[in-house]
Specification:
The chain is 85% helix and 0% strand. It has three helices and no strands.
Length: 48
């Protein structure tokens, strides 16, 4: 019954949603790495 109580309280759903957000942000970061030259951006930011 403890497992089912997570459904009733919404805890399981909230955790699942939080994990989905985290996974989406991780995927976005990986994709951005393909298109952004971080070293060049840092070089420009440092004024070099």
């Amino acid at each position: 019954m403890k497992y089912l109580s997570q459904f009733r309280s919404g805890t399981l759903h909230k955790t699942s949603f939080a994990e989905q957000i985290e996974n989406a942000l991780d995927e976005l970061a990986r994709e951005m790495e393909n298109f952004l030259d971080i070293d060049a951006i840092l070089k420009i930011a440092r004024g070099h």
